């Protein structure tokens, strides 16, 4: 696969999305493409899978060779079965009525014999962890399960070249590792992969990393070299690996390979560890003693009579001013619980009470100012054709005057940095902007509790930081925050309390550091403790971020 | 919430060969349409009811109870008021309420409701993919078959999109259930626009997903689902053809209306 001087400008777009991109990928290679949002990653992907130019009008220049063939007018169809794709919006790719029919669809078109088809379908479902879901209707899967299905449908086809646009955004951390490992393993069969990812874990498995910025290739280097130099990741808005940043921050010359190795080095420098450092991570303390806002009592919910329950006997108390993270593997019932907490779903058993009153008996307008819920997929909640109207919808329902509504909308849009886009159609925004718009539309209601369902998926690191800063600001102003997430460092740095769901049951409810010390629970949750936290545990200090440890070590050296 | 009508189960009805299902349902439709009076519709409705029970689909009847009731009563109301009765009890402009009007309205209402019940039976026991396979086996080109079944795939997707907009709006304090029933219906209307626009946006991606998975290939195609003919199929086929025949003869000799 070979690109030379490829440029593309979307019809109606002022600036080119790609400017003179050169890229060579050899057979059997895995290349990870990284870049900030709007860097042109998705455009590159579309060029590689021929969505551009066949589905996307615009002007394309340059020389493109795919699978040893010079491309001029070839369309997606000409490469069907040879180039596999998973689009960023994976939900729209699904159209069958059962999981196995979805995976089999492509194989049927190619006339694969039924016994072989059966075997390939099962293999593909197994490699993404969807065995046992064969008969399910794709529309009823959880977010992460849908994404797994989209990947399986592509894997079953066994294409020569796989072009994947952020294929693991909604997966739980272990699932992400497993799926990436499956993909990386395809190289052995001589398949070629181009994967757009925001996380360094993908780079660890790749041969090469390509950094993209403003439509240009900024750097193209072997993965190992890239992993040692956090600056590249930073400038492409990717969160660099903890250990590399630490090595950098502490001025270590040779690279560290493992947490153990780093721990040994840090331990020397941290030597007499004092009590006050041990408690460093606990400054914010527990929120006990505050008013109880929301109580969930023995919630159970079954979507279908014969299916296992999505929630089983979950009890939870939420007090004012808490910052709570809700964790759990894909399909563990997080979204379901969140929807119960604000009354969107009625549990089959048990009750949710808001300040002592059953939430389902509270009028909707009051419920909306009590508990706000930001959907997992922002596209499921955005319906207006103007950013302004989208945000104004909520306050208008509260019966405020037009003036008060305008004031609230301005504030909410200002808080997420979208004020100057207020006349745009929400669908012109990037995924990150839509995500923030979704947050803004609930902020305008000024709810006391805000539930965010994976608010940072598909965002680059800078955007994730911005989103988190926004959420923290709201939290400081007194909002109670419940955040569902699969991102380990977010939990480590921001959450005081975590609640862990596992197959609909509540497994753990307590301080973050306690959970992180329990390997059994972390595995059940299919979660990964961030390297820096593990490092801290090895050294007997409680740290939340690399910066904190660097500061701590720095202080200790000065003392000596 | 469950959106598709299909009931995941393994009943004798589910196991029927898809061609038998399609032909059988066609026969039932014929019977439902030829039934010219409630006397002729009711036994048919009983047969369909029994089959719905056999297919584990009674829950679907319950789910769609309001829809079925609405079809029945609206049809009855409209036809009884506007049928051109010979000797009306009451006449006012185009409205002519009379015995033959009421009779005809009742027959039509029964006929239409049975018709929908038959449709429900089919969708409860047949996957969209099976339907497409059956069309393929009776000679419809695969692409055309897919397009013909597209509606059945898209309707649940539409409903799903609509429900999520409804949820999003409820979440922000919009009460759909406020006011009388007319106002309630009006609250749902604005939901249709974003759903429709969303569907158009999705259609593009779906076309791409289809192409990438070889939808445009000339064939030959295979099917993941394997079907075998069994005794049950023969019985069902003969049974439904006889049923259609019986009703055709009955309607012809007993006379409609
Ligand atoms: N509408 C539905 N009908 C049937 N089952 C459903 C439906 N929605 C969700 N489920 C099932 O309920 C379980 C919990 O789903 P839920 O969406 O709460 O998971 P989640 O924890 O949010 O997962 P993810 O991390 O993938 O978003 C899953 O096994 C899912 O397949
Ligand atoms: Mg979820």
Walk me through the structure.
The complex is a heterodimer of chains A (560) and B (257). Chain A is built from 23 helices and 20 strands. The model of chain A is unreliable at 274-287 (pLDDT under 50). Chain A folds into 3 domains: 2-239, Rossmann fold; 241-280 and 541-560, no CATH class; 292-531, Rossmann fold, CATH 3.40.50. Chain A has a 6-stranded mixed sheet, sandwiched between helices. Chain A has a 6-stranded mixed sheet with strand order 16-17-18-13-19-20, with helices on both faces. Chain A is an alpha/beta fold and 560 residues long. Chain B is mainly α and 257 residues long. Chain B folds into 2 domains: 16-133 and 230-254, no CATH class; 141-212, no CATH class. Helix content of chain B is 72%, strand content 4%. Chain B contains 10 helices and 2 strands. In chain B, strands 1-2 form a two-stranded antiparallel sheet. In chain B, helix 2 (18-34) packs across helix 7 (128-137). At the A-B interface, strand 6, helix 3, helix 4, helix 14 and helix 15 of A face helix 8 and helix 9 of B. Bound molecules: adenosine-5'-triphosphate and magnesium ion. Adenosine-5'-triphosphate binds next to helix 5 and helix 13 of chain A.
How would you summarize what this structure contains?
The complex is a heterodimer of chains A (560) and B (257). Chain A has 560 residues and is of the alpha/beta class. Chain A folds into three domains: 238 residues, 3-Layer(aba) Sandwich (Rossmann fold), CATH 3.40.50; 60 residues, no CATH class; 240 residues, P-loop containing nucleotide triphosphate hydrolases (Rossmann fold).
């Amino acid at each position: 696969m070979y690109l030379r001087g490829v440029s593309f400008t979307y019809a109606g777009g002022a600036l080119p999305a790609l400017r003179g991109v050169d890229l060579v990928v050899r057979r059997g290679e895995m290349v990870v493409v990284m870049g900030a949002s709007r860097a042109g990653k998705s455009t590159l992907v579309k060029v590689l899978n021929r969505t551009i130019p066949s589905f996307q009008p615009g002007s394309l220049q340059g020389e493109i060779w795919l699978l040893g063939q010079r491309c001029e007018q070839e369309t997606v169809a000409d490469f069907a079965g040879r180039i596999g794709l998973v689009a960023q919006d994976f939900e729209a790719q699904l159209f069958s009525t059962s999981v196995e029919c979805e995976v089999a669809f492509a194989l049927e078109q190619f006339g694969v014999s039924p016994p072989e088809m059966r075997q390939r379908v099962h293999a593909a479902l197994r490699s993404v962890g969807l065995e046992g879901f064969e008969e399910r209707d794709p529309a009823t899967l959880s977010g992460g399960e849908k994404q797994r299905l989209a990947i399986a449908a592509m894997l079953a086809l066994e294409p020569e070249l796989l072009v994947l646009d952020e294929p693991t955004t909604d997966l739980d951390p272990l699932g992400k590792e497993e799926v990436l490992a499956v993909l990386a393993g395809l190289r052995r069969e001589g398949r070629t992969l181009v994967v757009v990812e925001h996380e360094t874990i993908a780079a660890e498995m790749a041969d090469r990393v390509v950094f993209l910025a403003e439509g240009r290739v900024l750097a193209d280097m072997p993965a190992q070299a890239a992993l040692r130099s956090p600056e590249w990741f930073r400038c492409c808005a990717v969160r660099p690996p903890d250990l590399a940043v630490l090595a950098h921050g502490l001025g270590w010359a040779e690279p560290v390979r493992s947490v153990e190795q780093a721990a040994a080095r840090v331990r020397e420098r941290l030597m007499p560890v004092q009590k006050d450092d041990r408690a460093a991570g606990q400054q914010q303390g527990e929120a006990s003693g505050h008013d109880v806002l929301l109580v969930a009592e023995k919630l159970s919910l079954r979507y279908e009579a014969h299916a296992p329950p999505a929630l089983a006997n979950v009890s939870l108390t939420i007090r004012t001013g808490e910052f709570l993270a809700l964790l759990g593997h894909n399909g563990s019932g997080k979204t379901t619980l969140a929807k119960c907490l604000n009354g969107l779903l009625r549990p089959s058993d048990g009750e949710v009470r808001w300040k002592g009153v059953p939430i389902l008996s509270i009028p909707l307008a009051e419920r909306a100012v009590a508990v706000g819920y930001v959907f997992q997929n922002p596209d499921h909640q955005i319906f207006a054709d103007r950013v302004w109207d989208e945000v104004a919808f909520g306050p208008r329902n509260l019966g405020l005057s037009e003036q008060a509504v305008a004031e609230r909308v301005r504030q909410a849009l200002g808080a997420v940095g979208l004020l100057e886009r207020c006349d745009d159609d929400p669908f012109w925004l990037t995924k990150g902007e839509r995500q923030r718009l979704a947050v803004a539309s609930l902020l305008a209601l000024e709810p006391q509790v805000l539930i965010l369902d994976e608010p940072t998926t598909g965002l680059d690191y800078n955007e994730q930081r911005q989103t988190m800063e926004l959420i923290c600001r709201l939290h400081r102003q007194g909002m109670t925050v419940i955040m569902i997430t699969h991102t380990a460092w977010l939990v480590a740095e921001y959450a005081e309390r975590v609640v862990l769901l596992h197959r609909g049951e509540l497994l753990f409810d307590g301080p973050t550091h306690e959970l992180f010390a329990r390997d059994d629970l972390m595995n059940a949750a299919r979660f990964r403790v961030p390297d820096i936290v593990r490092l801290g545990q090895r050294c007997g200090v409680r740290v939340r971020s690399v910066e904190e440890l660097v500061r701590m070590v720095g202080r200790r050296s000065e003392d000596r | 919430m469950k959106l598709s009508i299909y009931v995941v189960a393994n009943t004798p009805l589910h196991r029927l060969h898809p061609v038998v299902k399609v032909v059988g349902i066609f026969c039932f439709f014929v019977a439902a349409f030829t039934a010219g009076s409630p006397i002729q519709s009711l036994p048919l409705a009983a047969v369909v009811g029994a089959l719905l029970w056999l297919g584990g689909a009674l829950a679907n009847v319950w789910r769609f109870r309001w829809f079925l009731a609405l079809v029945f009563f609206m049809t009855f109301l409209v036809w009884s008021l506007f049928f051109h009765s010979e000797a009306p009890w009451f006449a006012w402009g185009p409205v002519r309420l009379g015995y033959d009007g009421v009779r005809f309205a009742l027959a039509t209402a029964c006929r239409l409701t049975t018709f929908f019940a038959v449709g429900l039976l089919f969708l409860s026991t047949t996957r969209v993919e099976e339907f497409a396979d059956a069309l393929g086996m009776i000679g419809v080109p695969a692409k055309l078959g897919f397009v013909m079944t597209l509606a059945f795939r898209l309707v649940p997707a539409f409903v799903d999109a609509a429900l999520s907009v409804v949820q999003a709006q409820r979440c922000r304090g919009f009460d759909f259930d406020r006011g009388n029933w007319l106002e309630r219906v009006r609250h749902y209307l604005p939901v249709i626009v974003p759903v429709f626009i969303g569907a158009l946006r999705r259609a593009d991606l779906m076309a791409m997903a289809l192409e990438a998975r070889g939808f445009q290939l000339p064939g030959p195609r295979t099917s993941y689902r394997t079907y075998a003919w069994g005794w049950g199929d023969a019985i069902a086929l003969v049974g439904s053809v006889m049923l259609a025949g019986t009703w055709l003869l009955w309607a012809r000799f007993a006379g409609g209306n």
